[in-house]
Design goal:
By secondary structure, the protein is mainly beta. The chain is 8% helix and 60% strand. The protein has a 20-stranded antiparallel beta barrel. A hairpin with a 2-residue loop joins strand 2 and strand 3. The longest helix is centred in the first third of the chain and has 19 residues. It is globular. The protein starts with 8 loop residues before the first helix and ends in a 15-residue tail after the last strand.
Length: 382
Amino acid sequence: MAYAKPENQVAVSRLLINWIISVILCGGSAVYAHAQDAQANSSDESWTATTENSVANANPSRTTDSHAKSGNRSVDKQRVEVLGPNGRYQPASETEKETVQVNATTTRTVVRTYSWDANGRRKLAQVTEEEARSTASGDAQVVRTTSSSDVNGNLRVVQRETADTRKTSPDVQETKTTVYLADGNGGFTTSRQTQELQRRSSDHRLEEKKTTLLPDGNGNWKVGEVKEKTIQEDGKNRTTEERVSRPDVEGRLSEFSRTVGEETETNAGEKSNTIDTYSKNVPGLTGDGRLHLNQRVTTVQKKNSDGETTEQQVELPNPGNPSDGRQVRAKTKYIVRYGASGTQTKTIQVQDGNGNLNAVSVEKRKSDQVAPPAQAPSDKPQ
């Protein structure tokens, strides 16, 4: 088996750190987002949270999130600031999401994205408008329009997307999505279509199949990707498997990647989740057309009356010498404290060349929202 070795150890170190941070941000985002979503959905009252992020060899940043709800209207804002040359934080981007519940079946959402120019002036960069309608039978339709600012600051529609969901039976639903791109002449061309089928069974099993179709330039459609996902639930335990297939140069579908996950929960409320990812593309390894276990992410979550702690570790091969096998290359720790001055802390540690774990990223989040108290775990078997 051949290995693609970087030119020097510095390149290996930088590649490894960047790769690990990207893995943690993707794999750990669900955990971190869960805590934030719980915070956002637990109350209709307004709240503000500030997150400070410090990454090794990178400019520190600060993110401010706010939520406000009044009646059928809610507004969520997020501003990202970076440390400027004068030692003060300066704005880099801002997103504002406005959601209006028009009636029991219709929701309208507008997302505005702002950026700052070289003169420090805020400019509207993009607007996404969405209208979602549902019916009593479970059918739904979503229409989404995205507009971007041109060089003169005028908004122009650049993309439209429609998604229609239809329940063909109590346990089966189909969703067809079409994406259109502006052609520059006032019209639109079809860019992509997806067909998604979801099927639930009586044994707590969910099967999903999503097929992405792309135009071939001759007016025909060809399969660009197929994702097949299975979720099996057994009480508080869950297993998940996802397979992604893509066409080769001759148009034949073959498995490109596979993800297998197992989630368990004890009677005491401790959760454990392991996700194995297999891929044809492994850093440092010359492709041989086969799937290889690329990474393993293990997450353990514990709760008590004061808050919750989530610890995550990432096992990866060494890009400089994949034959060494997987090793624990990074650890992440999330700490959430309940109360009026609730705080969340996330620390990422990466293994150096001597096998020591060093902190390369520290993120601290503080919110003024009072989170609901944790419930004591039950001693009764489930």
